[in-house]
Write a structure and sequence with these properties.
Layout (H helix, E strand, L loop, with lengths): L1 E3 L2 H13 L4 E6 L5 H13 L2 E6 L9 H6 L4 H10 L4 E3 L3 H4 L18 H4 L3 H16 L3 E5 L3 H14 L4 E5 L19 H6 L2 H14 L5 H13 L5 E8 L15 E10 L7 E10 L10
Parallel strand pairs: 1-4, 2-3, 2-5, 3-4, 5-6
Antiparallel strand pairs: 7-8, 8-9
Helix pairs in contact: 7-8, 10-11
The structure holds pantoate (PAF).
The site of pantoate (PAF) has 10 residues, from strand 2 and helix 7.
């Protein structure tokens, strides 16, 4: 496994691999790797002969300096995990390598970036779309893999790649969960004690909404209320959003369901370090199509 810090050096590796007829998979990460990232690597290995994992805590996608500073950094463990997983290249650029002095070019996927996490974290997806563009230009992959937990991020990146013609296949990989259903996230290290046990409120809310659809509930506001009630059973939880959206374009769903719908959740919990700080967890599920009227119970 090779550790590459420089964009031009990675491009040279990619050119060489392409000239050799090898396919390249890119797994963009911000480090603090967990089993969810390793599932992306595994999926990448099944699709390409060369797998590149980028590890870069991207400053332009953080709204608060404190959040950027608190983002977990586990460099040595990340390298060991990549080696073990059979990664070929770890791309670890310096911030000034990706954002040179005077940097002023941004990629903004306008409509898809606005709601949900974009509303709570203005500018977040502009930072994500910009850094992912730069990573795609550096690694020149045939395929790039992203977790479905970050549904909106995946939608933004798919649209960006399509609109700008990157010529790369964007692949979503299902969310990996703890035994109790909590979606894996690098931010989970900030949860402890009661907050950690109550964090399963998100997956319980998704389960409750799915069960309600299967039982015949088709009113978006009723489904959102079911999710909110379930989260409300966790006293430490503070809801950021719990919304039903169209999976394709993330527009708010108001009319009774007649096809697939996305239930997207973001919930704050107290951070283990205390001092009134919070950790924001997200999760989502594409809910099933409602049954035809005559088949509902
Ligand atoms: O999902 C992440 O870890 C980041 O948003 C990404 C895609 C690596 C861009 O910094």
């Amino acid at each position: 496994m090779e550790i590459v810090h420089d964009t031009a050096a990675l491009q040279a590796r990619a050119d060489e691999a392409r000239a050799d007829g090898k396919r390249i998979a890119l797994v963009p990460t911000m480090g603090a790797l967990h089993a969810g990232h390793l599932a992306l690597v595994e999926a990448g290995r099944a699709l390409a002969e060369r797998v590149c994992v980028s590890i870069f805590v991207n400053p332009t996608q953080f709204n608060a300096a404190a959040d950027l500073a608190a983002y977990p950094r586990t460099w040595e463990a990340d390298l060991a995990a990549c080696r073990e997983a059979g990664v070929d290249w770890v791309f670890a650029p310096e911030p000034e390598g990706l954002y040179p002095e005077g940097f002023q070019t941004w990629v903004d996927v306008s409509e898809l970036s606005e709601p949900l996490c974009g509303a709570t974290r203005p500018g977040h997806f502009r930072g994500v779309a910009t850094v992912v563009s730069k990573l795609l230009l550096a690694a020149k992959p045939h395929v790039a893999l992203f977790g479905e937990k970050d549904f909106q991020q995946l939608a933004v990146i798919r649209r960006m790649s399509r609109d700008l013609g990157f010529g790369v296949e964007i692949v979503g990989v299902p969310t990996v969960r703890e035994a109790d259903g909590l979606a894996l996230s690098s931010r989970n290290v900030h949860l402890a004690g009661e907050a950690r046990s109550q964090a399963t409120a998100l997956v319980r809310a998704l389960d409750a909404a799915e069960a309600a659809v299967l039982a015949g509930e088709v009113r978006p506001e009723a489904l959102e209320e079911i999710a909110r009630e379930e989260i409300g059973k966790a006293p430490l939880a503070e809801i950021d959003y719990a919304e039903l959206r169209e999976p394709e374009n993330l527009r708010r769903l108001r009319a009774p369901l007649d096809g697939l719908s996305l239930l997207a959740l973001a919930v704050f919990f107290p951070r283990a370090s205390g001092a009134g700080e919070t950790v924001r967890l997200i999760d989502n599920r594409v809910l099933p199509k409602p049954l035809p009227q005559e088949e509902r119970t």
